[in-house]
Amino acid sequence: GGQANPKAAGSAFAPSNIALCKYWGKRDAALNLPINSSLSISLGDLGTRTELRIRDEGIASTSSRRAVEAMPSSLDLVYLNDALQSPDSSFAQRISAFLDLFRPMLGNAGFEVRTENNIPTAAGLASSASGFAALVMALDDFAGWGLERRKLSMLARLGSGSASRSVYDGFVQWHAGTHPDGSDSFAEKLSFQWPEFRIGILELTDAAKPVGSRDGMNRTVETSPLYRSWPTQAGRDIETIRRAIQEKDFSALGQTAEQNALSMHATMMSAWPPLIYLQPESMAMIHQVQRVRADGLEVYLTIDAGPNIKLLFLEESEADVAGSFPGLKIIKPFEEVP
Ligand code: 2P0
Asked: Which parts of the sequence belong to the Diphosphomevalonate decarboxylase-like N-terminal domain (predicted)?
C-alpha cells in the first residue's frame, strides 16, 4: 500500500550541469574525491527524471512482466528511456553497484529504476551527473529520509563526481575538501542569479568517446607532465569565475572558463597514451569561435571529455550567435528551472 513508509515509489528530477572550472583528477577513486574544486552551471529543465520502487511490486503490463521473467538472475530492473537495460550493461551495473550501498538499510530488495534523460546522451553531455543526482534524490524520496542537500550532494558524489553538483540549480561550487573520508567534499549552491546567461550546445558528432572520463582522469594524473600545474590553475580560475559571477563580469567569466577547458585538454593530450577527445569538427568550431570573437561577438567556449563544444554568451548576443552557429541548441539556465 502507498501509505507505508518507505513510500511505494520515489521520484526526482536533477538537471545536467556544465563545469566552468573543471573537475579533472581524483585523490580517492573509491569515494570520488577530487584533487581540485570545480564550479558549474546547471541546465535548468534539461536532465534526468528517475523513478524508483521495489522490484516486482505492481508491474503493470504483460510485456514488462515477460521481459522481467526473461532475466530472473538480475537483482535490479533498470530502464533507460523506457527500454529495459541488460544487467550486463555498464549502465545497469553502475546503478546496481550504487544501490548496493543502500540495500542493507532498505530490506535488501531489488529495485526497479526508471530513468528518463531529456538531454542527448551524446559524448560530452554528462548524463551520469544528472543521473546519479536524480537517483539519490529518488532514493531519498522513496525512503523518506529527508536528507539535507549537502548530504544528497555527498551521496551523489559516490555515484559520479560531477553528480555532486547536479543536486542544485544555478551556479554550483563543489568543494574538493581535504578529509580522507570525504566529509568536507560536497557541492554548494552559489546564490547569484544571471537571467541573461546562455549556453549553446553544438552536437558535432555522436561518436562514442574512446576513453571514459573515469579512466581518462586517472591516466592524466598518472602520466601527464602538465598535470602538476593543473590544481594551481584550477584554484585560481575558480576564484576568478566566482568573482566574475558576483560582479556579472561576463568577459572575465568567459575568458577564464575557456582557458580552463583548453588547459584541461592540454593535460589530457600530454598524457600517455594520449587522450585526444577533440575531433576535426571540434577544432573547426574552436577556430570559428575565435573568428567571430575577433569580429566583435562576445562568445566563449567550453569542452568536456568529448568532442562537442559548448558556447557561453549573453542574451544580447543570442541572435548573432545563433546566426553564426547553425543548429545551435540554446539553453537558458535561469529561465527553465522546473
Ligand atoms: C566536469 N568532467 O567537471 C569534468 C570536466 C568531464 C570533464 O566531471 O569518475 O563522470 O564519475 O567521478 O563526474 C566527468 O567525470 O567522473 C566530469 P567520475 P565524472 O564536469
From this structure: 14-187
